[in-house]
Amino acid sequence: MTAVDAPGLNGPSVDGAVALPGPRSTVDLNSDLGEGFGRWSLGDDEAILQLVTSANVACGFHAGDPSTLRRVCARAAERGVGIGAQVSYRDLAGFGRRFIAMDPEELVDEVIYQIAALDGFARIAGSRVTYVKPHGALYNAAAGDPEIAEAIAGAVRTYDPSIAVLGLAGSHLVREARSAGLTAVPEAFADRAYTAEGLLVSRREPGAVLHDPELIAARCVRIATESTVEAVDGTTIAVEARSICVHGDTDGAVAIAQAVRRALEGAGVELRPFTAGPA
Amino acid sequence: MTAVDAPGLNGPSVDGAVALPGPRSTVDLNSDLGEGFGRWSLGDDEAILQLVTSANVACGFHAGDPSTLRRVCARAAERGVGIGAQVSYRDLAGFGRRFIAMDPEELVDEVIYQIAALDGFARIAGSRVTYVKPHGALYNAAAGDPEIAEAIAGAVRTYDPSIAVLGLAGSHLVREARSAGLTAVPEAFADRAYTAEGLLVSRREPGAVLHDPELIAARCVRIATESTVEAVDGTTIAVEARSICVHGDTDGAVAIAQAVRRALEGAGVELRPFTAGPA
Amino acid sequence: MTAVDAPGLNGPSVDGAVALPGPRSTVDLNSDLGEGFGRWSLGDDEAILQLVTSANVACGFHAGDPSTLRRVCARAAERGVGIGAQVSYRDLAGFGRRFIAMDPEELVDEVIYQIAALDGFARIAGSRVTYVKPHGALYNAAAGDPEIAEAIAGAVRTYDPSIAVLGLAGSHLVREARSAGLTAVPEAFADRAYTAEGLLVSRREPGAVLHDPELIAARCVRIATESTVEAVDGTTIAVEARSICVHGDTDGAVAIAQAVRRALEGAGVELRPFTAGPA
Amino acid sequence: MTAVDAPGLNGPSVDGAVALPGPRSTVDLNSDLGEGFGRWSLGDDEAILQLVTSANVACGFHAGDPSTLRRVCARAAERGVGIGAQVSYRDLAGFGRRFIAMDPEELVDEVIYQIAALDGFARIAGSRVTYVKPHGALYNAAAGDPEIAEAIAGAVRTYDPSIAVLGLAGSHLVREARSAGLTAVPEAFADRAYTAEGLLVSRREPGAVLHDPELIAARCVRIATESTVEAVDGTTIAVEARSICVHGDTDGAVAIAQAVRRALEGAGVELRPFTAGPA
Question: Helix, strand, or coil here: D167?
Fold first, then answer.
């Protein structure tokens, strides 16, 4: 990932990534985009694209009609925002949020299909798909199931081994991507509570999702500059993340993303797509 | 049946292509492939792939699940068969055979999506999508409607201007593809009757579709070597075609394709993907 | 603006329906509902259901997941709102707004499937599908093409001849429904401009869609009480309608529907589902 | 579900059903039908409909376009074949063979939608949907997961409590259907091997699926007349079934169904839809 020879403000990271030391840290902000479908829209793509550095663009299987994909890719390319393929189970009715017990070989092919389709729009916008981030149920399945993680990593490697994989810090997906020789980028979630073990608190638990923009922003600064976060029990835990996910489709999404960006910039953190090399 | 070795029968072609004179002509044989979907299969892809030189591969919108696309692209690449994107209206229920009144700009994007998705599988097989042939209702619409033809040509040019367009000889699609600076390849149909004006006899008319393999094969030889065919009224008409379409999903499809190939080879016609340059 | 209590203004209607004379007129208000799909929502079904008397409920082909259909049917039944099947072409990607050239026999079967599916939810809510209103491109096609109109009327008659058909006043759909022995209910559009010939001004023309709630409401009162409307050229034309369509998914939809309902009630017009017999 | 007071050739059944004693037994033969989709066909519906007494008709979610459903229902009604709704996960790409982790409440609604849609075609054919049999992954999920079984039973009870549920003998689905006050009909599989515990041998094991028509037929006779079958270890086990499933889409399906029917008739077993009352 990045070779950083400067000694240690930060300790060794959970996932092998090492935060850049010195007066300036850098972090990537990613968000899901292009999640409408035909008549239906979701979130404010235009506003979010002005705040993030990486766009997880839907590929048509859970959302994302071709004209939306083209428009989002064009706007992302114009702004220097990285384009990622937000691959999903084939499930418009369930928005990709339902686990589907697929044959891993078929999953590989479905992922390749989606990356390639989106890459077409990235290319004609003068950019490329530079990373893959699974969506919804596939994200969770790839975090917890090595076979599914391996299928996704295999699809990426087969399509283009220079494409990175963005996944939950500490997940099987990050591990399998590395085993496959790919660049794995661990991410943290701006608006989610963490357990003392560094896992996300289940959405079924109270307090799992944070809503206060300033609190969320402050946590992001801490993740970016100290690689730590306060867990639900009050302890401080290490959260090594090269990217922070902000949601684009919730109430107040834009306000949260604005607060996060403002706070990070105010703290001297450089916002930069992870797929760009160090300055 | 057909005079093969007579020099000089072929004049300048209708569509600007010039048949090669002398002892050897060349022609391409194309067929639709990959038209199953999940549990459902259609035609004998494996057998047809051993007979044709260009494979019009479904892209998932009227047929073609990703695993099928991958397999067909891999086998085509192994055998040196050209890979074409058989783009379609989004219509699994109607197998792409129903005209859909789409916004042309959306059509452009839907075509790009499909080409790019298939190109992913062609690339990982070590090949590329080298041409686009619209399927079913989109083929007919692009033949007769300049706006739709322009949309398809525009999609191809936007995605990759080195990709050719395969269409009905004399169609708007061939014309618009040329206007867009693309290579347009006119094709003839092995098993269809022609009117004295050089159009296909409507499938609703008796005798529109031929079934006798030997008769079909003889017509193909004449198309390939003389650029003519006998029309339904007995007159001889010019049919300039760099490719001949054989169907893969009808009863007796394989037998017909075998007869066609055998007859062409027997007549000294070289079978070669049109996308390869002349020897 | 409108004279309400003047007796005898209403002559015989264009479509054979006769407006009720005397101190009270009645009219039905219909709106499209249930047009979300899974994660995507559209319009404010709950608010609109409190304003209309007939709900055109999506059936799953252009929009409408089963849980949404169930919920809308249950709420409509609770409120005494009539339940209509808003049948459509199978086209989630195009929201049913694209004409699809289908075999009429297949169209019949697709319409039956949709009516029956929705009727299941109407029945379990203690109600029934009491009318059919085609959606989008199918509405327009059925208005102008007798063969398509006949297919829809045939589907309704086959499924249940007691089900009414709601269509554009003067359309082929209304005509074919009557020929088939069905109850045909002509409708007017609250927010659309009319030509001097009584047709809707094309949406491509300026001024085709009205946005001022009070103006729209006043026109509705006049339609309900006088069966006339002012055309774009300033002339007064007859518009016989037993139902008025208010849109549910546009900006300001709820405000317009509220203004329409308030004005109609203020003018002494009784709002009642057309499918109920006269008091 | 039938109370049989004649004493005992058969002991108490696993599922509470008791085989009819005496010179004539009765059994139902069921098979999956209507599993094509548009251009794609599967199995020989016409031939199978002449052999079975109950038709599990696809409802459009894993297969089954409306015109196919209508035709199969019409032919089934003509022949006195019972019509069952073969409800499925929404998964055309996977033919309903992939488990989808759905919210149970949404599953209830998806099942109601499918039953109702098919019931429309059954009604217009002069028949009714008289039972529900889940398809593929939903069949397996409902057999082993009480929550999913309860969702299906709940959907049936909500739609029409006179509709029976056809499921694997001994399954949660049979149990939950009975708890819901529904008629539950246990079935056996003609061409599947059983373990000594009365479970189906996994398809992954060698010998799981039988192919010899005469052997399969002989097992069916024994199931119908003795309520026993020989397990893979050679022991004799009780298999109480009021219906036997024969497959319609495998190689040799028709030949197997013919052999089964011939053997049952030869053994004096009456073939009758389970949904008809006793003679």
Answer: strand
